[in-house]
Predict the 3D structure of the following.
Amino acid sequence: MDERMQVAVYSTKPYDRQFLEAANAGHGHGLHFLKPGLDRVTAPLAKGFPAICAFVNDSLDAETLEILAQGGTRFIALRCAGFNQVDLSAAKRLGFQIARVPAYSPHAVAEHALALIMTLNRKTHRAHQRVREGNFSLDGLLGFDLRGKTVGVVGTGKIGAVFAKIMAGLECRVLAYDLYENDAVRKVATYCPLDQVFRDSDIVSLHCPLTPETRYLINRESISQMRRGAMLINTSRGALIETRALIEALKSGELGSVGLDVYEEESELFFEDYSNEIIRDDVFARLLTFPNVLVTGHQAFFTDTAMSRIAATTVENLTAFEKGNDSPNFVPLA
Ligand code: NAD
């Protein structure tokens, strides 16, 4: 009989399997790779598994957690940093332990935010298409020097701090807002109230988590505080932005450009290939029509460094649970 701890790994892509199998070599858990995402329909697949591993768009609502608990699951290893997809009070009531990967590579995400800025500004995505078609016209490709521009960073934790440093390195003036100020960030940025960050920035980049307080942080009113033509970047969580307000601001020209790695209804779309299907989300489809909007499908974390660290920490979290050890990666459920 296989005595290894058996783990149902949801939302598995070939790259997840590659990195998790490599990380598991020294731990020897029994990893069972499942393609479906986790929700109330797929939760019964974990029946008899003491532990499961879930990803960022898996649904861990109360009903899903009930089914997992009935099937004997006790531990949820999230292979992501955020845990806004988990109903924490239901998890506590049902006696789950939950672990996450609080830090793996803040540089991966911060550098992707820079990639969005660079692409939107210098329009390299459009230039690439044009040149391939023999069109060497520069009309519509005008950018601006980043040097000397004001960049606002909302949330200066691990990722926001790296991002602030990168932008300061490009000789931007960096403004920052957080509930708690970070000494390392103070060396490269000036903390100020949120409305001032919105008012004075040419580029606003979001790096705070999704919480009840930050949901729709970017809405009609906050957009109206921003500079006309400002660039907005979101590599954090989709629901920080009220997408309908964003679309109105793009139509009116209040916002000059928008780079998104996340979208509030992304769980219906992201990480899958729908290139042969019709996209039914009209709000998302409208976003894609703007020449000054760049969307990537939640790939900011996706570097080999980050994937190796995510897999290593996830497997360590599974081992900590199996041995009954405590870990700073366990999500407090109090
Ligand atoms: P972190 O916990 O280190 O930092 C978050 C910061 O946000 C903290 O300093 C916190 O005080 C601040 N904050 C909390 N509430 C705030 C509020 N109301 N206003 C302003 N600031 C507030 O987290 P991190 O590792 O820097 O990650 C930030 C976010 O990035 C995560 O929550 C996650 O949603 C997102 N993320 C996205 C990807 C991706 O691939 N796109 C990958 C990893 C993380």
